């Protein structure tokens, strides 16, 4: 007997998760990608009557959509670590279970963080542009960047990703690791990181790494005022959520050299237009939200989201309940 009706929102859901589901239910896959304009109307039109959703889209799961789904809906799993695209009070109000897919992406996101950090600090984008435009004019002061060795690295949000970043950067002879966040992390002592207030972190860090969830407290944490408190040699890396940074303020800070450079895996909105002012800046290195985009990580995320809904439909605890 089938455990229930499961809707997967996004046609690119990896086969590893689909296979697990198909052993137990007949999943319906919504044949959209989340960036297609038609995807939200399609979701609204198709969602009625399902017992479980795999919400593999960046569209916000609102009370309105939950109402369209109907009162039989028992469980939702994201295929993401972040849950800022889910209206959690509306989910809880209806007694719907929610799961997500953290931890398995920590290594992949930490790799991208280190890549962005080196690219921004060592001016990869400017260097490649000069090469491609035939402007390679080698000189001792040409294209000089910032050192990681001897630096202070400040990590905002010291969860799994933040800690994986620290473990990688230990090999670069960083002088000091500091972090800020809602609570003391027991792992910090062993990793050699000290918790400091956020204003101290922004003031003292050579590299500011944003690895925190998007909340009311972290929205526009990086803004015109906080950017002014940073070193003018500072490099800001955002692998968390675009809205943690006020992009207009970041643009001004980068143009006016209030800070040295930025490396962004996440921006607002996504996808970002190629005409956005940040895209043209030589000291802003942007990649299109590639953090967890490795074959193995995405397969694991799909498997976990499938297991989350299958377990919940059987009345068992999910692998990662929120
Ligand atoms: O951004 C990616 C995630 O939250 O998994």
UniProtKB/TrEMBL annotation:
Q: Which residues form the D-isomer specific 2-hydroxyacid dehydrogenase catalytic domain?
A: 13-318
Instruction: Enumerate the SUPFAM superfamilies for this protein.
Output: Formate/glycerate dehydrogenase catalytic domain-like, NAD(P)-binding Rossmann-fold domains
**Matches recorded under PROSITE patterns:** D_2_HYDROXYACID_DH_3
Q: Where is the D-isomer specific 2-hydroxyacid dehydrogenase NAD-binding domain?
A: 114-291
Keyword set includes Transcription = no
UniProt GO molecular function: glyoxylate reductase (NADPH) activity; hydroxypyruvate reductase (NADH) activity; NAD binding
Taken from the UniProt entry, a GO cellular component term is:
cytosol
Concerning InterPro entries, the annotation shows: D-isomer_2-hydroxyacid_DH, D-isomer_2_OHA_DH_cat_dom, D-isomer_DH_CS, D-isomer_DH_NAD-bd, NAD(P)-bd_dom_sf
**One Pfam family matching this protein:** 2-Hacid_dh
Give UniProt keywords alphabetically: Oxidoreductase
Please state which protein family the record places this protein in: Belongs to the D-isomer specific 2-hydroxyacid dehydrogenase family.
Q: Would you tell me the protein name for this molecule?
A: Glyoxylate reductase/hydroxypyruvate reductase
UniProt organism field: Mythimna separata (Oriental armyworm)
Q: What is the lineage of its organism?
A: Eukaryota, Metazoa, Ecdysozoa, Arthropoda, Hexapoda
